[in-house]
Specification:
By secondary structure, the protein is mainly alpha-helical. It contains four helices and no strands. It starts with 14 loop residues before the first helix and ends with a helix.
Amino acid sequence: MAFMKWDDSLSVNVHEIDLQHQKLIGMINEFYEYVGKDSGQAFCTLLDSLVEYTQYHFSTEEDYFKKFAYPDAGSHIEMHKIFTDKALDVRNRLNQGKFVVSLEITTFLKEWLMHHIKETDKEYSKFFNDHGLS
């Protein structure tokens, strides 16, 4: 059973971004599979991939913010930075052997992503649709 599932309540009505969110959910599900296993190197690789893909996803959103002059871009970008900084910190501590893969970090990733999509990303949904994205 998947730790996190995609459903229509997560759609922001922009196909490209919905696909990226689905990929992020899949990556978090992969992390969950490693919780409690002695697979530090595999988790490091997954975390590196998540950080890289998250930065790609955030840049997609931020490019649209600039293109359409999204009025709440500043606060949204700040939330992206907070998450990226947290993910980089976890990755660095894990690489230094100062962090153990746990359900806590996987739950944090899940809850942050769910909240970010349902609360923050939904705010731009109509704005992007009004500017021709669907």
